[in-house]
Amino acid sequence: MPKVIELLQRRRNEELWQMSCGFLKLSLEQFMAIQKRLLLEQMRLLGGSELGRKLLHGPRPETVEEFRRRVPLTSYADYCPELLEQQEETLPVKPALWVRTSGKSGEYPCKWVPVTPAYAQEMSVIMCGIGMLSSSRKWGETSSFPQHPRIVYSVAPRPYVSGAMASMLGQQAPSDYLPPIGVAERLSFEGRVRLGFKQALSRGFDYFFGLSMVLVTVGDKFSQSSNRVDIRPLLSKPGALFRLTKGLTRSRLARRPMLPKDLWSIKGIISSGLDSAVYRDRIKELWGKYPLDVYSSSEGGFIATQAWDSQGMTFIPNLNFLEFIPEEEHFKWQQDHSYQPRTLLLDEVKAGENYEIVITNFHGGALVRYRPEDMVRIISLRDEKLGINTPQMVFEGRASDLLDFDVTRLTEKTIWQAIENSGIPYEDWVARKEVMEGMALHLYIELKGDVGNEDDLAASVKEQLALLDSSFAGFYNDFSGSIDFRVEVTLLPKGTFANYTAQRQAEGADLAHLKPPHINPPGKVLSLLLGSLEAEALAAG
Amino acid sequence: MNIYALFPLIAIAAYIPLLVITMGSRPWRRQHRLFTLFLVAAVMWSLTDFLWRSNFWPQYGLILGKAILITLTWMAMQLHCFTSSFFPPRTGRWLPFAWASFAVVFVLAVLGFIPESVSVIDGKLYPVYGLWIVVMAIPLVTLAVRNVTVFSKRLKTVDNPMLYNQIVTLIISIYVLAVFILAAILPWGREIPISHLGNILVAFILSYSTIRHQLIDIRLVLRRALSWGTLVIGGIGIYLLLFFLVHLWFNFELRPIMLGTGLAGAAIAVVLIFLTRGVFQQKIDQVFYWKTYDYRQRLSDFADRIQDVFNLKELGGEMLPLVMRAINCRGACLLFPEGGSGDFTPQFIEPQGEANPLYNLRLRQDNPVVQYLSQQRRMLTIQNLDILPEFRSLWEKEKEAITTADIELFLPVISRDKLVSILVLSGKQSGRYLLEDISLLEEVTSRVAVSLERGYLYEEARQREEELSLIGHLASIMTSSLDIRQIYDSFIRELRKVLDVDWAALTLVEGEELNLLAITSEIGSAWKTGDRLPLKDTATEWVVTNKVPLLEPNLPEESRFWTGKYHLQQGIQSLVFLPLMVGSEAIGSMCVASRRPNAYSQSQIQLLSQLASRIAMSIENARLYAQAEQRARVDELTGLWNRRHLMERIQVEIGRHSRYGGTFSVVILDLDSFKAFNDTYGHIEGDRLLKQLGLVLKGAIRDADEAFRYGGDEFAILLPQTSIKDAHEVAERVRHRITSEVKTGSVSMTASLGLASWPIDGIAISEIISAADKALYYAKQKGGNQSQAVLEILSPLSEPPSKTDLPQDKGAFSIIHALAAAVDAKDHYAHDHSQRVKDYAVALSRGLDLEPADIARISICALLHDIGKLGISDEILNKASKLNAEEWEIIKYHPQMGTDIVSHIPQLSACMPGILYHHENYDGTGYLLGLKANAIPLDARILRVADAFAAMTSARPYRDALSQEEAVEELKTGAGKQFDPALVESFIALVKNMPMVTTQ
Fold first, then answer.
1. Residue B233 CB-half CA count within 13 A
2. Of A86, A76, A89, A78, which Cα lies nearest the Cα of A114?
3. What's residue B460's pLDDT?
4. Three-state DSSP state, A97
5. Helix (H) or strand (E) holding A433
6. Count of other CB atoms within 10 angstroms of residue A78
C-alpha cells in the first residue's frame, strides 16, 4: 500500500483522498458490504484463537446473522484475564502494540487492549485522512496539507491510545511534534502543553490534536495576558518575537485583546470527546477555526469523524463492526442485566434516535460485540450538503451517564452545553439526579468569580436546557407548570476542583482520574468536593 | 495567389475536422472547452496567414501582418491553457503571465511595433519584424520551456498509461510548434511558411492522440469519423503539396489537363496505398513490438478463429501462453466461477504447475475484486486495490495472496453483460504495462468472451451430465437394500472413483445425541458404527441447525468443533458435512473426509449435497419400513408383541441357541376367569383389563425377556438363555403380580402358566409351543393360578424310572428322534450320524442276542449319544482346522453334557451310562473317566464300535470316507485298544452281511 506521504509528494491528490477519506464517498450498501465482509474475516480469525472460541461460545459462526444471533454482548470482564494479563498467545493475531484506557475506578487497574499490525496500519491511514479533513474546505483539497506537519502534542502519552495514534501517524507521513514525542512523554501533562506552545511560538504549528479544553484555556490565558506581554525573554528568539509582534499588531488593528489566531494560522484542530462540541464556538473565536470532532476510543480506534464542515460525524467502516442498541433496549438492560438487548446495524438505524454503540474489532482485534458504554445520536441518515450517503452521528456521552427523569432524559453533553450557554464563568461542575421531594437535577458548580446566586443560576441553566433539548423543550413549553424535575445549584468554594486534582495527584491517580466525573460522581468523590464547602462553613460559622 | 498559401490552407483543412468533431461532442468539459478554443485560435492563425500569402488584399498587408502575430500569440496562449490543464494539482499554471504576454503583444502590434513594416517584393508581401519581435518570442519560449519541464517531471511519477501517452503527445506538440515558429523568424522563414508546416504536424499529432489516447474524451464513433476525416483531408493536402513542389522545382504551369492527370495519379496512389497498408502496418508493428510481434499476431489470429472452437481446454490452453508472450509478462491465469460457490478459481494457468503462485489464487464471489469487475466491467490495476475505498473489505489473506502471486492486472471477460471469466496477469518481465498492451488485452478479452462463455457452459453441461450419471448409479446402489449400513460401504466405494474419500460417516440426531449409523474408513476411525456422541458443538449440530453444507478445508489450520482433534489424530485434514434433509427437516449429517487438505471443491460439495439428499431419502424409507414392520408385529391393544413376532423370535432363538449352545424357555399364560370378567363387565372393560395385563407383564419380566399377546386372553413370554428352572421363577413372579396388581373389581383374576424349554421339551417351534400349551393345560387341570413345566407333567405319569422303563409312546420317540436330528443338524459333516450309529448299534446288539428291552435302550442311547453336542458352539463343532487344547476340552465334555440333558428326563435315565461312557477306550485311554475293559458298560462299548464305524465311513473335512474294508481294518487295528475285541469280532461278522452305507 502506498504511503500518504508518497501520494502527497507525487501530487496524486484524488488517490490520496480516496485512500484516506474514501469512506465519505461510500454508499450505505458499500459501507455495509465492507462491514459484513470484514466481519467474516474476523470470525475466521477468532475461530482460530483461544480467546475467540471463548467469546464465540462454541463453533465459529459462518454468517453475520448467526454471529449476531449466537454471540452474546460483552463487557471488559469477559476479556479477563486474557487482556488484563496481556496473554498474547490466546489472541487471534499477535498484536503490534498494546494500548490502555483509564478504565473505571475500582473495577480494573486499567483496561489493556491489543492493536494488531493491520489494525494499526488502517488506523494510520484514517488518522491522515482526519488530518486532511481538519485542514480542508472541500474534497480533494490538499493545498493546506503540509508534507511535514508540525503538531502540538497535548495528548496522553503512550501506551494511552491518543499517544499511540500520534506515533501511528509516523507510519504514513513524517511529522514534527512540539515537543518531540520522546521529550513529551517524559513531561507532565501541563509541562507538555506549556513546552509545546512555547516551541510553537517560535516555530509555528499546523495542527492541534488533543483536548479542546486545552485550547480554550491556552486561548483565554493569551487574551488575558495580552496587555502585559514581556518581550524581553523573546529577544533572543526572533521567530517568537516576530510572531508576537504580528499578533499584537493584528489585535491592535482589531481593537481587542490579542487572541491565539493573531499569532498562529492553525490548519487543523482535531479533538475527541464531549468538550469539542461544547467549546467549538469558543475555539473558533479564539483560534479562528472550528475543531474537527472525532469519536475514538482505545477499544475501537476511530469509530466516526466529522468531515470538513465540522458537523455530523461519519462512521468509519473498516476498523470495527458496528451495532447499535436502541435506547429503549438499553434501558430494559439497565433494569435487568441478564437481558440481552437487541441490536441494529447501520442500515437499520433511524434519524433522531439515541443508540448505545457495540463494536467488534476487525483485522484480528480482540473485542467482540463489546459495549464501550457510549451513547450516540443519529442526527440524519445522510449529509445532503456534502454528499455523504451514510448516517451521521453526534456523540452523546457515556451510556451510564444518562440522567433519566420521568419524561426527559439528560446527557452530560446537554447539561454541559446548558451551563456553557448560560454564560456563567465556571471552573468545573458535577451533576447528580437526586430524589428528595420530587426529582431534581443537582448541580455542584465552582464559579470563577462572585456572580449570581444559586437560585438565579438554577433558573438560567433550566432555561438553557429547555432551549437545547427539543423533547424537553416541547414538554417545557406545554407543561412548564408541571415539569418533571427541578434544577438545584450548590456553589462550591473557590479552589474546590483544584484541590481535588491536587489530592488525586498526590494519591498517584493517573491522568484520566484527576478530574471528577461530571455525571453522578460516586459518593466518595462528592464528599471530597463538598468537604471544601463544609470546611468553609465551619470557618465562617 | 501565392503558392505558399497552400501551407496555411492545408493546416486549416487539417484542423477543421478536429474542430467540428470536438465542438459537436457534448458535454463540454473544462479541458474540452480549452481544446476547442485552441483549435479556433489555430485555425484563425492559419486563416490570416492564408489571406496574407494569397495577396487577396495587398492594401491591408500591414493589418494582416499584425493580425498574424496576434493570432499566433493567441494560439500559443490557448495551447498553454490547454496543456497546463494536464499539470498536476498545486502546480502553478502561470495563466496571468501568459495572458499578460498576449496583452503586451497585442498592444505592440496595435501600436505598430511589430511588425515594423511590410515590404512588397515581386508582388509578394514580406513582414519586417524588427527588434520588438524578441519581446513576443521570450514569453512564448518561456512558457514552452516551463510546460516541457513540468511534463517531464510528471512523466516520472505518472502510473496511468493513458495519461502517460497524452503527456508525451503534448510534449511533442509543444516542441514541434516552438521549433517551427522560431524557425519562421529566420530569413528564409519569411518566404516559406515553415511555422504552418509545424501547425499542420501539430494538427495531425493532436488528431492522432485524440483518436488513439483519448486526449479529449469524444465518443468512439466521433473518433472514427475524425480518423477518416483526417485521412481524407491529409491526403488532399499531400496531393496539393506535391503539386506545389512540382510547380516549384520544375516551374510547371497549372493546367487543367495536368491537374486531371495528377488527380488520376493520386487516385491510383490512394488505391495502392489502401491495398498495401496492411504490409506497411505490419512492418511498422514489427519494428515497434519486436520479439512480441509474432505472438501478438497469433493472439489476434486466435481471437479471429475461436468462434468455431467449443472446447474450453483448447480455448484457454491456447490463449493464455499467447497472451503471456505477447505482453511479455511473468505469469497469467484465467479464472472461472466454480460450480456451487461461484468463487473464481484458476482453470488455466501459465507457466503451468503448482509452483506458480497463481495456482492457489481463489477469489470468493463476494471478493471486492470480483464485485468491481462485475459491476464496473473494466480493467483493475493493483494500485486501485490500495486506493479505492471499496477494496477496504479485502481480507489480509487475500491481499497477501495477490501480493504473493505478483498480480498487476485483473481484466474482466464480459459476455452478455455477465462476468464469465477473469484474466489475471502478473507484472511484466521488464517495464510496465503500456496503453498498447492494455488495448490489446481488452480487445482480445472482448473478442474471446462469447467463446469462453460458450466453452465454459459446454464444460459445465458435460460435468453435470457426468454427475447425473454418477448420481443415477449411486442411487441404484441406495435403492438396492433397506439396510443403510449394508449399502453405505458400496456407496462410498463407488464415490471413491470420483472423490477423495478416506473416511465417511452417516450420523443421525437422536435427542441430544448423535447416533453413528454407518462408518466407512480406509484409515481407521476414532469411533465405530453404533457409537453415540454428544450432539453439542459438533459439525452435525451446525449443519442440522443451518441446513447447509459445511466445509472444513484445512483441519490443522482451523478446527471448529471438538470432534476435530479426533479426526486429526486419524490424519484427516479436510471434511465436508452435508445435512440429511427429509422435507424441511434435517435428521442428521453425511460426512466425507480426506487426508488431503482442501480436498473438496464447491462443485463436489454440491454433488455430495445431492447424494446426501438421496441418502436421507433412503434412511427415511428404511425408517418408515421399520416402523411399518414394527407396527405389524405389535398388538395394538396391549402394546405387546403379537403372535407372529413370537414365532419369528422363537425361530431366531432356536438358530442362535443352536449356534452358540444353551437353552431358552417359553411361557404361555392364560387368564383363569377372563370369560367371567367379560360376562360381568363387558368387552370394553375386558379390553382395558388386557391392556393393564400387558403393562403388568412388561413390568414383571426381565430386560432380556419379551412378552407377547398370543391371542384372546392368552399371552406368552420368551426367555432367552434361560433354563426351565429359572423360567419357572419368572413365571411365578408374573403370576403373583397379576394376582396382586390387576384390578378387576368383584371378579378375582388369576393366571395359569405353562412352561417349556428348548431343546428338552421340543426342537421345532411347534413342539415348543405345543409343550408349553400342554403344561398350561395341565396347570388349568390342576385348578389354575399356578405355573407348570413339561417335566412336571411327565413325572407323575410314571413311577420312578427303572432300567427298562423306556419311553413307549409315539410322542416320546418323536422327541428322541427330533433331538437326534438336532444334534446331526449342528454338525454339517455328520448328516444322519445318530441314525447310522443307532442302526449299527442295534444290529450289533441283536448279533449279541441281547434282550429286546436292552436293544431298545441301546437304540435310544445310540440316537442320543451326541446330544451333549447341543451345548457346543457351531464354531468349534464345525471347525475345519485342528482344534486347540481348549476347544478339545470343550469337545471332550459333550458326553457329560449329554448325560446332564438326559438326566432331566426320568424315562431316559437308563441311557445315561451309554451316553456318558461312549468315548471310553477298552485300554483305558479314552474319556471321560478312563475306564477299562469290562468296567465300561456294555451299552457304551457297543456305542464305541458303532460310532467309530459310522464316523469312519463318513467323509470329514480333513479326509474322505473310508470304504467298508478299510473301516473293518481300522476296527481290527483298534481291537483291544479302543474297542472291545469281542464286540469288534461280532461286528465284523455282521458287517459282511450288511449293505454298506457311506456318506460323503
1. 20
2. A86
3. 81
4. strand
5. strand A426-435
6. 17
In the structure grid, which three cell numbers stand for residue B895, read together?
Answer: 458326553
Name which of A476, A334, A326 is nearest A407 in CA terms: A476
| Cα distance between residue B549 and residue B148, in whole Å | 63
Q: Which of residues 208-267 of A touch B (CB under 8 A)?
A: none
Residue type, B242: L
The pLDDT, as a whole number, for residue A377 is 92
Model pLDDT, residue B256: 67
* pLDDT band for position A510 (cuts 50, 70, 90): low
Residue B555 Cα, gap to closest chain A Cα (Å): 11
Which pairs count as long-range contacts for B30-38, CB under 8 Å and 24+ apart, including other chains? B30/B85, B31/B82, B31/B85, B31/B86, B31/B216, B32/B216, B32/B217, B34/B78, B34/B81, B34/B82, B34/B85, B35/B82, B35/B215, B35/B216, B37/B78, B37/B81, B37/B82, B38/B75, B38/B78, B38/B79, B38/B81, B38/B82
Residue B717 CB partners (closer than 8 Å, separation 6+): B666, B667, B669, B697, B701, B705, B706, B707, B708, B730, B731, B734
ipTM of the complex: 0.81
Ramachandran bin of A497, using left for φ above 0, alpha for ψ from -120 to 50, beta for the remaining angles: alpha
Question: Cell 502496418 identifies what position?
Answer: B281
- What tens digit of pLDDT does each residue of B917-935 get? 889 999 988 887 888 888 8
Residues A248 and A231: beta-carbon distance below 8 Å:
no
Ramachandran angles phi, psi of B751, nearest 5°: -135, 150
The pLDDT tens digits for B604-631 are 888 888 888 888 888 888 778 878 887 8
The C-alpha cell of B803 is what?
432300567
Cβ within 8 Å, pair A142-B157: no
How far is A481 from chain B, CA to nearest CA, in Å? 54
Band of pLDDT at residue B400, cut at 50, 70 and 90: very high
Answer whether A274's CB lies under 8 Å from A416's CB. Answer: yes
| Dihedral sign computed on CA atoms, order B837, B840, B846, B850 | negative
Are A313 and A293 a contacting pair, CB within 8 Å?
yes
Q: Let me know if A441 is exposed, middle or buried by CB neighbors in 10 A (0-12, 13-18, 19+).
A: buried
User: pLDDT tens-digit profile of B56-114?
Assistant: 777 788 888 889 889 999 999 999 999 998 888 778 889 999 999 999 999 998 888 88
> Residue A404 to residues A273, A408, A437, A462: CA-CA distances in angstroms?
21, 6, 17, 16
Letter for the amino acid at B43? V
Whether B393 sits inside 8 A of A33 (CB atoms) is yes
Distance of CA B14 to the CA centre of its chain: 65
Alpha-carbon distance B61 to B59, whole Å? 6
Return d(Cα A346, Cα A2) in angstroms, integer.
30
Q: Which cell is A77 given?
A: 470482564
CB atoms within 10 A of CB B632: 10
Average pLDDT over every residue of B124-142: 83
Please tell me the distance from the alpha carbon of residue B508 to that of residue B544, in angstroms, as a whole number: 10
Mutate to test the interface with A, among B367, B392, B563, B589 (most CBs of A within 10 A): B392
Average the pLDDT over A509-535 and give the result: 76
Model confidence at A481, in pLDDT bands (50, 70, 90)? very low
Q: Determine whether the interchain pair A1/B388 forms a contact, defined as Cβ–Cβ distance below 8 Å.
A: no
Q: Region A437-458: what's the mean pLDDT?
A: 81
Cβ contact B98:B146 at 8 Å: no
Tell me whether A18 touches chain B (CB under 8 Å).
yes
Work out whether strand A292-297 and strand A354-361 pair parallel, antiparallel, or are unpaired.
unpaired
C-alpha A403/C-alpha A354 separation (Å) is 14
Q: pTM for the complete prediction?
A: 0.61
Q: Could you tell me if B329 and B425 are in contact, meaning their C-beta atoms sit under 8 angstroms apart? A: yes
B431-B433-B434-B436 Cα dihedral, nearest 10 degrees? 130
Q: Which three cell numbers stand for residue A358?
A: 457495540
